[in-house]
Amino acid sequence: MINTLNNNIKNINQLSIGIFDSGLGGLSICKEITKQLPNESIIYLADSNNTPYGEKSKGEIINLSIKNTELLLELGCKLIVVACNTATTNAIDTLRKKYDIPFVGIEPATKPAALQTKSGKIGILATKGTLNSDLFLTTSHEFRDKLEIIETEGKNLVRLIEKGLLDETKPLLEKYLTPMIEQGVDNIVLGCTHYSFLIPIIKQIVPNHITIIDSGEAVAKQTQKVLEKEGLLNLDNKNVARTFYTNGDLNVLSEFLQRIEISADDEIVFRVF
Ligand code: DGL
Q: The whole model's pTM is what?
């Protein structure tokens, strides 16, 4: 099932971790994976041309996730991180059934917020596609009789982030977060990987006593666990390559790579897919 275009690869452990997102949001996960697993080669796919996934139907999200997975497999990946809450909550079950390769996903951290809250009220900021997904509805249902969950769609945030217009998200964030703050939440879950890039702006709006929950580090730890379990860790620190594919704006991609401190030596490839 796993194939590779790279003839230098001697064993499966040297294959890359494939990461995909509807665009640049998954780079926040990529940053944590690079920190946690410095020996691992990475192939990142930013499907920016099809962003936002959060406003598409489940069927469309599944088809796009299949297309991304097939390209990553063609490029030679040993594990795929679905670095998108919307794709995970709508498509990861289909991907797991269809492909014989480990997948790691990300979904809103409702459970950690529920375990942590003292006020009994938590906020979740995510896309419409995530909030309407069966996976999210099932997970959040478990906690609804014990606590109040205030969920808000972060409409248009992803569009602005994809254009690199982060500062322009502030009025929208104020609109989405103020009702949560006024209702007394003490934890706000960032249920979309793009929103991690907004944390400095969110901190200007949200009082200090409110915890902002971002799952990037947890996903990196889970990726390590799965690689260990499957015997797929790369123990060799030579020939580590990080390659970034986009079908969107290369300048914005480069700007985001600087934000996550990916070094200039890393290969940046523009490819339409
Ligand atoms: N990064 C994706 C997520 O985590 C963005 C969704 C979108 O494209 O709408 O949900």
A: 0.94
